[in-house]
Design goal:
Blueprint: H1 10-15, H2 23-50, H3 53-56, H4 65-89, H5 93-121, H6 131-158, H7 173-205
Helix pairs in contact: 2-6, 2-7, 4-5, 4-7, 5-6, 6-7
Length: 208
Amino acid sequence: MSSAVQIPPPRTRLATLPIDQQRGLNAMWLVILTEAMLFICMFGAYYYLGNNKDRWGQESPPDLMFPFILLAVLLASSFVLHWGERQVRAHRFGAARVALWITVLMGLVFTAIQSFEYVTQWKQLSISSDSYGSIFYTITSLHGAHVIVGLFMLAFVGIQPRFGKTTRSPHKPYETVARYWHFVDVVWIFIVALLYVVPHFQAISHGH
């Protein structure tokens, strides 16, 4: 009489399955796509409200000093983090960790400067001043919230004992969170262009 076929328990079968290296990255791309749609809607609302000049209330374009400083900080942080990604691929995890924490520090600098900009600008423009002030602070503070979320994710990866494609950490947490941070930087480029630079060109064209 032949013996019955032995079927391993579910946990054992799962343990023998290959780990999907791209799962985290693919999920992050979906998150980025979702958040990109949110910002596109916000930009659409910005220009829709701008068509109603009676409620818009914008008399002069916003100052360009703070947004360009913030842009320089974020772009520099992306270059640092990208360098860290290259160190992970080369298995130089110590250097990659240093790059990650420098990125966190630069993100904190961004948040501090943006807070100072709000304090300075609030004297002339608040969220309840008019529709321009409302949508301006909504978009910039929404981006600031994304920066803070990115900082938490970077810090979480930074305290891990291992990251990168190693035997102990077969996933790609460093590269995954870096994708989100680069997305946050790209969004700020659009914010600077659409909310800061374009109004200056419009003011020049109208002779203001």
